[in-house]
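Researcher: Here's the sequence for the chain we discussed earlier.
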Amino acid sequence: MNGLDRSRIEGALAAAVQYSSADEVFAVLSSTTGETTRIADGIVASPHAATEAGMQITLRKGNRYGSIHTNELQPDGVRRAMDIAVAQSAIMPEVEQIVPFPSSIEFVEAASTHASSRTSLDGSELLKRLSERVESAAIRLTGSLALSHNTLSIASSNGLFLHHPSSFVHTQFRLYSNDGWSTGYSERFDDALSEEEVIASLDGAVQKCRAWRDPVEIQPGRHTVVLEPRALADMLKPMMEQFSSRAVEEGRSFLRKLDGSNFVGSRLFDEQITLRSDPRNKDCASLPFTMDGTPVPSATWVQGGVIEQLVLDRYESAASGGLPVPPPTNLIMEGGASTMEELVSSIDRGLLVTGFSGLQVIDPSNCLLTGSTRDGLFLIEEGRISKAVRNIILRETPVYLMKEVEALGAVERTSTTGSFFPMLLPAMRVKDVLFGGSSGMI
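Model: Thanks. This is the structure I predict for it:
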């Protein structure tokens, strides 16, 4: 599988940024060539191969902007799209402030990917073996295995050119007991996965599916919890989206003070909490530039509980005369020395949370989240996991977790459920996390 070759990408972008009828042009070209193999109720479908490529073009003519997306990447097709964008700009309102598109920058490539490794997986054969593996446990398998090669390239008429090729493996499996009353979940995102890693991930989900039998109900209230890394990832992603100067200004962030200023430089979290990002981390490689052409450097967002900095977009930085601070494309949290057994053993009564489903922000001023637990919720009694618990509704903010954390485990690679945002996170023990009643979710 190969995406667009670099010469064709450069030709398409050159046809856009050299367009003489516009004062400025900015173009983003993305392509994906991949193969997806699906399995439903143990039946493996034929692999589906597909190639997608398209270019998003934004141009400025005077004080007006026009934008268009095109899949015609030959020079003539690009120029036709540009003509439409120019016509569109003529009817758009004028803007007061012109922020030039990015120009040529010094760019350091992210950690290299392992394209040769990912091609060693045979999707159909692997899914057949996985299906046979779970059949013996009276469990049905549904899901997919996707292999892809991707490119993201950005250019501007001011001399910018960025190019990032990557390989990608995504496995996503939902497990069901034969009676339909117990489920498990396995998902991995990586640039390369071995067959052994996929099997190990699935085996963990099988164990959770088999263990989540005859769940009991618990009363709404506050419970000490151990959050596995994926559950923590689902809660941290919306919190990190609030590390933004614009969100603070618009009252959509817990980092806004009553007087309208922010908490940068203040200790808001427990001193165990340090959050960083680095797209060149070899264990957590991510996109090394943003979609608006800003390079993403390594950054520290929280150090020992102290808020270090906020995202500052190009428009805000131009107004203030400073440099933009791009959002993180991955997240790395420092862990602790506790094993999972040690995190659980000190709890008289609490909960082990594997993951969540449908988490959403219901109060942006303090990042209050709601959503259901899923894929393994277990009662902890006298330092051991005793029984399964019916899924319940979370009513909590990750800000509280960061303040009331008791202990951390070793970090492991994870991501948010259903979407790719690479993270290195530990398991976490937190006291008095607020839950509502049963969600009714299997």
